[in-house]
Design a protein that fits this description.
The protein has helices at 8-35, 42-62, 71-82, 120-130, 144-149, 157-172, 189-196, 308-319, 334-344, 358-374, and strands at residues 111-112, 200-202, 206-207, 211-215, 234-238, 245-256, 262-268, 276-281, 287-291, 297-299. The chain is α+β, with helices and mostly antiparallel strands. The chain has three domains: 8-72; 111-298, endopeptidase fold (from Nostoc punctiforme); 301-379, Muramoyl-pentapeptide Carboxypeptidase, domain 1 (Orthogonal Bundle), CATH 1.10.101. The strands form two sheets. Strands 1, 2, 5, 6, 7, 8 and 9 form a seven-stranded antiparallel β-sheet that branches. A three-stranded antiparallel β-sheet has the order 3-4-10, with no helix packed on it. A hairpin with a 7-residue loop joins strand 7 and strand 8 (276-281).
Length: 383
């Protein structure tokens, strides 16, 4: 329990009360006795003195000073006096935004890179995204995209894209969200979602914790900047050596400038506070890689990997008789590695290492095709 303290002002109030108490008792009787018939004037003459005493005593008795407060109350008041209201004066967190390295995007001399046939949903998605150009966040980073995702004040580059995908699903009855595109808001969640489905293309051609990549149908490993993103792909940006994804944008199209450099033209949100078009060089060091909206790349698989491509590998090995059905889990464990090694043992000149690299996967695909060709049931014609 705290020890109560008497302040200077409280002490003065007690002193005034001690002096005025006796005076109030004997002064009136003494003055009235001496005044005689004029005694009725005594209260009027005493009134100025009484008022003066009250004016001097009131500040002492009733005013609250810092000395009257305990340490905790005083500290709380001082803190409240100097601490701004967060709602009134928000302090934005430190943030690094994707920086365009293209001086004059769309200038003469750039030629559009032809992509060939694209899925129908790509143009629908771009149509929705274009309709959002110019949208700006409100106070405290409020956006309808963040509100849709569950956090109205969140950083919203991913939320913008997910919202656009959801709008396509609602307007056209497609099923894109969490099937073709991830529904996410976390830092690396979108990148990892594409990796597990075998559709993340690293700009430098090597997928960390997996292995080298190659474009499907090619006869060589993917080289740095060889993959040119196409409309509907997502561009993931990283600003640190760890490769964490900090920003994402939607590819609208790509061009090639007069010097032959590939320019990626995107629609993006939250860079820094609105939906806008922007352009980045394919060689931009901030570009980590691409989430492809179609299956365009193969990736080396190894122990510890998991996802759709791993499940395909397991199903293929099971069909070829190398893996039991109970091990079709989508997770590359010891049983899958042994099955890969058993298959590699039958490959001429192949090092048996348990890695499902490009040569191994192509050999497995060829073995499946040969099995299907030699299966009499595959030649049956049914109505």
């Amino acid at each position: 329990m705290k020890q109560e303290k008497v302040s200077f002002r409280q002490l003065m109030a007690l002193l005034w009360a001690g002096l005025l108490g006796p005076a109030a008792e004997w002064l009136p009787s003494m003055v009235t006795e001496r005044a005689g018939p004029a005694g009725w004037l005594v209260p009027l003459l005493a009134l100025p003195v009484l008022l003066a005493a009250l004016l001097l005593a009131a500040p002492c008795a009733w005013a609250t000073s810092d000395e009257d407060l305990d340490e905790e109350t005083l500290a709380a008041q001082q803190t409240a006096a100097v601490t701004p209201d967060p709602a009134a004066t928000p302090v934005p967190p430190e943030q690094v935004y994707a920086i365009s390295d293209v001086d004059n995007p769309g200038e003469e001399g750039e030629t559009r890179i032809e992509e060939g046939t694209r899925p129908d949903f790509v143009e629908k998605l771009l149509e929705v995204a274009r309709g959002e150009l110019g949208y700006a966040e409100g106070p405290h980073s409020f956006t309808k995209y963040g509100l849709w995702s569950g956090d109205a004040n969140a950083e919203w580059c991913a939320e913008f894209i997910c919202w656009c995908v959801d709008q396509v699903d609602q307007r056209y009855g497609t099923n894109l969200l969490d099937v073709v595109y991830p529904n996410y808001s976390g830092q690396n969640t979108g990148r990892d979602w594409f990796i597990e489905r075998g559709r993340f293309v690293y700009r430098k051609g090597n997928c960390p914790d997996w292995g080298y990549q190659w474009l499907l149908g090619s006869d060589h490993l993917l080289q740095k900047n060889e993959y040119i993103p196409r409309a509907g792909d997502l561009v993931f940006f990283s600003y640190n050596e760890a490769g964490d994804t900090e920003h994402v944008a939607l590819v609208e199209y790509c061009t090639r400038d007069a010097e032959g450099n590939v320019i990626i033209h995107v629609i993006e949100g939250n860079n820094p506070s609105s939906v806008q078009r922007n352009s980045y060089s394919l060689n931009n060091s901030q570009v980590l890689g691409f989430g492809a909206c179609e299956d365009v790349v193969g990736t080396t698989m190894r122990y510890g990997n998991r996802g759709d491509k791993v499940l395909w590998l397991q199903q293929a090995l099971h069909t070829l008789g190398y893996l039991e059905e109970k091990h079709l889990t989508g997770a590359f464990g010891g049983n899958t590695r042994r099955a890969v090694m058993d298959f590699q043992a039958g490959m001429e000149g192949k090092t048996v290492n348990g890695l499902a690299d490009r040569e191994t996967q192509q050999a497995i695909a060829a073995a499946l095709a040969e099995m299907a060709y030699n299966d009499p049931n595959s030649w049956l014609v049914t109505d």
